Amino acid sequence: MKAIAPAVEDPTPHGIAAAVARLITSGDLAPGDRLPTVRELASDLSVSPATVSHAWQALSGVGLIVSRGRSGSFVRAAPRKWLPPRYQGLAGQLEATRLDLSTGTPDPELLPGLGSAFSKASMRASTASYLEQPVIPELEQVLRDTWPYPVQTITVVDGALDALSRAMELVVRFGDRVVVEDPGFPPIFDLLEHFGAVRVPVGGDAEGMRPDLLAEALTLRPAAIVLQPRAQNPTGRSLTRERAGQLADVIHRSRHASDAVVLEDDHSGAIATADDVSLGSWLPGQVLHIRSFSKSHGPDLRIAGVGGPTELVERLVARRILGPGWTSRMLQTMLHDLLTDRVSVQEVAHARDTYHSRQLRLSEALLAHGVALPAGDGINTWLPVADERAAIVHLAAAGIRAAAGTPFQAGAGPGFVRVTVGLVRDDFDSVAENLASAARA
Q1: How confident is the model at residue 14 (pLDDT cuts 50, 70, 90)?
Q2: Is the CATH code 3.40.640.10 the one for domain 115-341?
Q3: Contact (Cβ atoms closer than 8 angstroms) between residue 230 and residue 266
Q4: Nearest CA to 208 among 171, 235, 168, 177?
Q5: b vs e for 19-31, b when ≥16 Cβ sit within 10 Å of the residue's Cβ?
Q6: Does domain 85-110+344-440 have CATH number 3.10.20.90?
Q7: Suppose 369 and one of 126, 364, 389, 436 were both cysteines; which one would form an S-S bond, judging by CB atoms 3.0 to 4.6 Å apart?
């Protein structure tokens, strides 16, 4: 059993938890190692057992240790092997916590009701032919009417990551370079590693990806450029129309990017407050625009629209025919109803306004506690912290879970945590106070 007491500089619950977290991070404590009992460590540190117990609870809350009853507490092994690497970093744990702001998921209370849509779905899951068009005409028309630019061809797939995976399968070969946002969405990084691609990280500012950094990245002749135009995960920033035009101009002028395909992941469109923009307005022949309805209408619907050049979209459709074939037309009928029903449209608009209000209220509360953080768009925000691990442990001790920033970063960088602001319903001052303290921990 590793001696822990000598590593503890501050014998408070947070100090003990932080010391153990550092031992786990450094590898001095390995997965499966047994920890001293609460009473043993309390005796070694000359503190009360309650102090150590609170530290253990904080470590358990962030998934670093697990209690096995009378057998004791142990360093947790890597979670859920079936998850891709960076998904494991996002997964958190199943133990209950007072407020879980790590998930990146919408508030279930703000999702539109499905009763009316279910009532209009077919009573039987039948289809006349396996070779029917993969998207029902009425849904295709609604998507076309709301698309950010006139698009040649639209189809429907099983969510944004399904669309990204299918698109990468078509345009990315082993060893190809792909431009990604930094920070960006960890599953995108996992996907690129799956395809053997080399990530080219490009930073951004409040208006989106920086044109000067993109121009530099394009000299490496990337096969694709992946970006999130609205409510970017994790930062919550949205691409301005002016910046979108600048990025399109950089791509158009680059002699190295004439064949590069731009993959746009508009995962939070209906609950974002920013204007609907796409590089497809300037580069329609190079852009594959993806619009997911998971954040706005429900993650379990698993449905997204994909629009772009006919040649590229039809290749994607042809490949899906040899797999799932099509996205359930019953689900498509439900989505069409949700997008056109007056009550459902109002419910989504209410969710958008509520998320915007929560972002503003938390930003104002943080400022009152000495942290200037502009309100994000959608449901997430990106909080800079002095020490990422210490911040996570500090929040866990207060009963709050946030997502560590490392999986979102393409390379080494300053400390951050992602906070799902959309799940903060009340008590903004208390949450902000804990976040501000964690930022300085």
Answers
A1: confident
A2: yes
A3: yes
A4: 235
A5: bbbbbbeeeebee
A6: no
A7: 436
